[in-house]
Amino acid sequence: MGTWTEWVLRYRKTVVLFWLVLTALGGALAGRTVDALGFEFALPGQPGYEANREILQRFGTGGPYDPLVLTVTVPPDRSLREPQTQQEFSAVVERARAALPGARVLAYPGTDDPALLADGGRTTFALVYPRPVPGPDPYARALSVLESVTGGATVAGAPAQVTGIEALTTATDGSDRGVLVEVLLGAGGALVVLALVFASLLAGVPLLVATVSILTSFLCLLGLTTVTEVSFVVQYLVALIGLGVAIDYALLIVMRWREERVHGAENVDAVRAAMLTAGRSVVFSGVTVAVSLAALIVVPVPFMRGIGYGGLLIPLLSVAVATTLLPVLLARLGPRLEWPRRAPRDPRSARWARIATAVTRRPVLAATAATILLLALAAPVLTLRLGSPAVGSYPTGDAAGRANATLADAGVPPGALRPVEVLSTDPDAVVQRLSDLPGVAAVLAPTGADWQVADSTLVQAWTAADPASSAGVATVDRIRSAVADIPGTRVGGSAAEDIDLVSALYDSAPIVLSVIVVLTLLLLARALRSVVLPIKALLLNVVSIGAAYGVTVLIWQHGWLTQVLFGTEPSGAITAWVPIAVFAFLFGLSMDYELFILARMREEYDRHRSTTRAVVDGISYTGRLVTSASLILFLAFVALSTVPTVEVRILATALALGIAIDAVVVRGVLAPALVTLLDRANWWLPAPLARLLRTAPEQRTEPEPVSTIHR
């Protein structure tokens, strides 16, 4: 690190010019990067996904896209079995069919199936499968067309209404707010925190580092989109996690530079000392975060690999900027940026020193209390349900929500809004197998060109329970098993693909976890010259992430404060890909703080060989830093939680909770308590592992900071 710093300071102009060019290009091409991101959630090789691809190829509609639902409920004294009301509803359906060329429609009385009537014949509904368009909203045009066609239309004096999963999702997602707004929200919160930390122009330096890191990441992301599919979710992760991580790294180095200056070092010497200590921690932290995100690349799901590739850019580029551009800025402008001048501030935090002292005096009590709290927060994970939101979980304040509630009240099974589509060359055999199958509310085999192509016919099966519920999932599995031996038969629909997504993600989870754990342990053992501290950090991370999962389940699945916090209804389930993405991101980000704290404890222990004193000194030096850094990252995730997409909201909620719980409970109480209890065992490193990692136990591997000659 010393050689690297000398090289950077020697070629200052080249370093500044290099980052200036990349930042300008990244800013100019950011719009093109966003446009190049994909919205496809492909699952190659999975049976539900392959069946849906074939349905789309043959019919041009349906498959993974649930239908829009055109419905009407006539007054109590009327019935949809009456010829007059049938004609009126048929006229509305025909107008919808004419306005949506190529749409596949299933309606009463065109299909005289009693399943399409409910509430004693007062309610009916038509399933309309428009042709999807590429992009985030496959029914963007179709939904508006259908709503305009049915607007003002009545049947027996009752209004026709439009609902369906896509209509409900569009209403829930709300406005299409761009990533720039989220970045500005996060940056605003970060600036307030930085202003309180520095009370000088130095507050702008971490934001400058973050700006360069984010725009350069977008430039690299554009190149990445030319070789692989990258999910639209990555733009938010790069922008807001990049904001938090880059500021964290810059904050660590700048505060250490300030500390060295307070202890009497000249400016450039203080830069060198900060890079030898904080800069080294930043490199190890960034690589640790990158390793945890790189593990997503081994998941056999393309869009998750895209998140892994994109996420990999965030810490690596943040480290690159923090260890090149930042020392140049501090060496050239650091003292001037201390304006308005004030008396040097003690780098130690008296408040955090008191907290650490209290913890070290009662380590058993502190560790026990913190552990009980974390386990209590994690307990709701036992009720975790993965999948799409329940059909009945959508808000009822808009027209689509009210229509959905009316269908439920009329007794229409939830599976009617998310039908299982069975593509078969022998539809009669499919109907026979499924008609009396437990959990199946209805089986429909429509005729006509909309439902038959060449020798293949689409049969619909509606589950009695919500397809996202455990009972609904079991019914879909029974449907698959029942028709498995019928030649030329495939089972599709969004529910089938959801089940395949969970399987694809979590069947490979042991591999992902193993990669993360092994590489992280080796990195931390090298950084901390200990085998016990990395294992402790790993266990604490697992408990911390479990607590974040638990509270997220309470909020989004069970509806605890969902309306108060987000102004929406609970989803009733956690999106399948969110937990594994949360684990990868939180594992790396939590290790950031762990490494910041433990590295300083290690440094202090090497000076005086007292574990208790090392804990107090380490916390007193890093407590303010970790609090500020975690608050900035927390605010970035709060900004992320305001985006329209429900899946991203759930992801942001878990990340924000994870950072808050980790910084306050784990790093503030549990970690120092356990280090105190383990005492000298913390610093043990077996000789064979020391040789493997090219380090040595119980001795310094870096020279003393230059500023120690001034102490």
TrEMBL record:
Top-rank lineage group of the source organism: Bacteria
Subcellular location: Cell membrane
Recorded topology in the membrane: Multi-pass membrane protein
Annotated transmembrane regions: 179-198, 205-227, 233-254, 282-303, 309-331, 364-384, 508-525, 537-556, 576-598, 619-638, 650-670
Signal peptide: none
Keyword Transmembrane helix assigned: yes
Protein name: MMPL family transporter
Organism: Plantactinospora solaniradicis
